[in-house]
Structures are given as C-alpha cells and as structure tokens.
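Running this now, will post back.
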Amino acid sequence: MKISKFAKYLILFVLVLFSAISLHQPIFVRAQEPPRVEITQPEPSPIAPESIFMSQLPSWARLVDIRKVNPNIRLDIRYATTNNFLKRKLYTVAKCALRASVAQKLALVQTDLEKIGLGLKVYDCYRPFSVTKQMWQAWPDPRYVANPARGSRHNRGAAIDLTLVDRTGKELEMPTPYDDFTKKAHADYQGGSAQSRKNRQVLKDAMKKQGFIGITTEWWHFDSEDWQKFAILNVSLSEIP
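Update: finished.
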C-alpha cells in the first residue's frame, strides 16, 4: 500500500514531536534513604571534677578521717562488713570520712554528749558514688536509698548514720536496729519503748544543736545543714588520708 507524501510528512512530524517531548520530560528516580545513624548521648554524671582535684580544694572542703578529728567517736562501719542489708562488703576499709567542716561539727556533738556520759557510734559517713549505684540496684526505694540520678548526701561527705553509746561503748536502745527499712525506723514512730523514743530524741537534739538535720524515714541519718555546697564524689575511702 502506497503512503502519500502528506502521510509520510505527518508520520515524520509525529515522530520528531514525540522524541522532543521524551527528551524534555523529567525522569523521577527514587532517592536512596540515607543510612540511619543512632546518636547516643552518654548519661550525665553528677560526679564533680573535684573527685580528681581533691588536693586543690580549700581545707574545710576536703575529706578527712573523723578519728583524726576526734578519736573518741566510735566506729561500726557496716558497709565494710557483711553486716548490712546487702550482706556483702562494699568498702575496702572501715573509715568514716567527712568534709572537714562537717567533721568539726560532729566532733562538737561528741564533746557535748560526753558531758552527760554519752557518745557517738558511727555506722556510715562519706559513701562513694559507685557504692550508691550498687545499693540502688539492690533496693531502688528512694525512702531509704538515694537515687543515683540525684546522688546521695553521703556522696557529698555531708551525711552521717550514727547512734548513741554509753561510757563503755554500749549502744543505747533505739526504736529499731540500723538499716531497718520499716515505718518503725521513721523519726515520728511512736511505738516501741518510751526509753527508745527518749534516746532517739536525745540524739536528734544533740545533732541539731551543731547544725545537723534528721530525715523522716531513718532515725539514724543526719545531714549537715549546708550539704548543698558540697559536690558529689567518687573517691575511694582507701585514698583518703
């Protein structure tokens, strides 16, 4: 079948037009998604740089051994033994370390109590931050164990766990033993014997006189009223002279 010249020109025109359109039509290519990069932020640590530069602190802010400030204060550092709520040793040495200014105030409490035939026995003082983390893993109850996210006042060297003793070193009766995590250990517990409540009050009054504040859930725990000016530390007790 013969095609007329007009038809040939028409077909050629259509082919050229189609080619031109094809050349200028945008081609869409699916972009590859960039590889996912997970950015993990390290958990902020509340530990202060002074953990490293302890020697550069003013003398009143350094950790000191309480026995070098007042050797009459008796020690029963429970976390250096297995006689504690975790049933294992957490400290390498049995030492009560406190900020020097806090230690001086505690020494005054001891001096005051000696005038009435009593004294102090300490269960715990400065506590390295790493130990607080271990305690929280075992007992995550903020009423009795500090949350490591905020740190403990023990970590600051500004808190003490302690009780009263007589002239012979015998502990006075208290509403509960140390580390009793029940309501009987609360500061306002009205059960137990009248003598135990009286002894608890004597301890509270003696500590308050020298600038220590008790807490509601543990009769044995007292914070120095200026605890906020001290940073959280993770210095090993064995490194403290």
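The CA atoms of residues 174 and 198 lie 9 Å apart. More later if anyone needs it.
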